[in-house]
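Question (not urgent): is this output format expected?
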Amino acid sequence: MRSCGPPAGRVPVVPAPRPGPGPYASTAVSFPVGHQAGGYAAAVDLDLTQDAGQLTASLVDVESVSGGEQPLADAIAAALGGLPHLTVHRDGNALVARTGLGRPQRVVLAGHIDTVPVAGNLPSRAERGILFGCGTADMKSGVAVQLRLAASVPEPSVDVTYVFYDCEEVSSARSGLLRLSRSSPELLAGDFAVLMEPTGCVVEGGCQGTLRAEIRATGKRAHSARSWTGHNAIHAAGPIIDVLRGYPARQPEVDGLTYHEGLNAVGVRGGVAGNVIPDECVITVNFRFAPDRSAEQAEAHVREVFAGWDVTVTDVASGARPGLAGQPAAAFVAAVGGTPRAKLGWTDVARFDALGIPAVNYGPGNPEVAHTAAEHVALSEIGECEARMRAWLSS
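Got this back:
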């Protein structure tokens, strides 16, 4: 890993005026620049009194690619450890901070602290009210909102559990949230959960499930000079593509939200040598299924669609229903406003659903720019998210 920025200092940034309200409409803002040496951030002191935009920049400037979250986890642990109204638990690079006010309800605010690999987009920079950098949208702006609320709302109207976890952007087996759910599920207990995924400050209910499978066409190997003595498996895979091309995707309504399924080829593997008729061709498909199907039903559907071919399911993760029916969810939607929509991708709300906790996605940032070199978030949107969630926790 490489160093990602100049030595620690402060870079003055003057966003251009923006129309409409917002704390960054015409304000000069200075963002701290993190320093990294040998691929690991130097000791970082997070200032939770910073506004959420500045705190986001501080978090972004501590590189935390999946598997390398320790410096950021250390900084978050130190910042939360100084808050007397929270009890902090640590499991590796995952942290859980809980209030203990004895309120009749408990809500969970969760966010991952890792990012995808850096794409030449560190340190962060701000231009015209937009903060650029790896993880700005996915999801260090959401983590900044969590930290601001944890520090500045010591007596919320409900008990709150703040969860910061590692390894969301890599294989499920490494997920810090999965690890917590297995080793200490009592720490995640609650009546309602909000996953701070980027949604543009729109409530997104539930999530779709995802299944990957290999559809195998077989043939008979032969010399390509005498192809008629064999059977070409790649040619035999054509009808598989025809099935995919003509697949009628459902758009079911689940608990008032409309989801959109999809079944698509995402990989092709075949061929032996330049002079050999291949005896196998494998098409990898990805089925994104609405939360009214279970993982077992999704698998059965894929096998039905590709009846007559060999089907091997390689990975499946259940979705989650919208989670909007209960009183805590209704209170959240009323406080933050807007019209909820369906989450079409898969997120960790499914892990909360598996624990029996209704959950939604809500946070600043546009998911369409996540994981890109130009990843960014509007500073005004971070402040808007914090203000809405603060109103909810204080109501």
